Amino acid sequence: MSLQDRLVRASRNRLVGRAAYLWLKALGVEFPRSVVFGPQLELAHGAVGLVVHRRTRIGSGVTLMPGVVIGRSDSYIAETAESTGGVTIGDRVTVGAGAKVLFRSGQQLVIADGTIVGANAVLLESTGTDEIWAGNPARRVGTRTA
């Protein structure tokens, strides 16, 4: 388990949470304390450059590579307290290095269980179970076999 993995978990602690969050930021990882995540989250290779939107939910056994961005595609529109939308990442998902997962305000983008998002892909729509997505914009290029 990397230092970044430990800091993400520590950021949930009432006593040291804020310090762990700030240490993560200093290491180049933006992972808000509001993000809900399951067990076995892996920030591979320290996940330097990782940016996760505050309204993201992450399942168990998820791997996020360095340079991944999970955020809004319409960030030019001011976000308000009433803003909706977000990203839900299922179980056993891998998001490749440099991939961008972008949702619009009001959209709930879902990366289904077992999905692989290729390196440098730009994912703008929800995926199906055990699918492989790649490209810019990302499209389904295959399915994952057991």
Put the structure in a nutshell.
This protein is an alpha/beta fold and 146 residues long.
Give the secondary structure arrangement, pairings included:
Layout: H1 3-10, H2 17-26, E1 36-37, E2 42-43, E3 51-52, E4 56-58, E5 63-64, E6 69-72, E7 86-89, E8 94-95, E9 100-103, E10 108-111, E11 116-117, E12 122-123, E13 131-134, E14 139-143
Parallel strand pairs: 1-4, 2-5, 3-6, 4-7, 5-8, 6-9, 7-10, 8-11, 9-12, 11-13
Antiparallel strand pairs: 13-14
Describe the protein.
By secondary structure, the protein is of the alpha/beta class. The protein has one domain: Hexapeptide repeat proteins (UDP N-Acetylglucosamine Acyltransferase, domain 1, 3 Solenoid). Helices cover 12% and strands 29% of the residues. The strands form three sheets. Strands 2-5-8-11-13-14 form a six-stranded mixed beta sheet, with no helix packed on it. A four-stranded parallel beta sheet has the order 1-4-7-10, with no helix packed on it. A four-stranded parallel beta sheet has the order 3-6-9-12, with no helix packed on it. The longest helix has 10 residues, at 17-26. The radius of gyration is 15 Å and the shape is globular.
The order of strands across the largest sheet is 2-5-8-11-13-14
Q: Which overall shape is indicated by the principal axes computed on the Cα atoms?
A: globular
**Integer count of domains:** 1
Distance between the termini: 25 Å
Uncertain stretches of 5 or more adjacent residues: none
* CATH topology-level name: UDP N-Acetylglucosamine Acyltransferase, domain 1
Compute the gyration radius: what is it? Answer: 15 Å
Task: Give the oligomer, counting copies of the same chain as homo and different chains as hetero.
Answer: single chain
Topology as H/E string? HHEEEEEEEEEEEEEE
What structural category do the secondary elements indicate? Answer: alpha/beta
CATH class: Mainly Beta
Largest sheet: 6 strands, mixed
> Helix proportion of residues, in percent?
10-25%
Q: How many E-type strands?
A: 14
Number of helices: 2
CATH level-two architecture: 3 Solenoid
Strand proportion, as a percent range, falls in: 25-35%
Report the average pLDDT across residues: 93
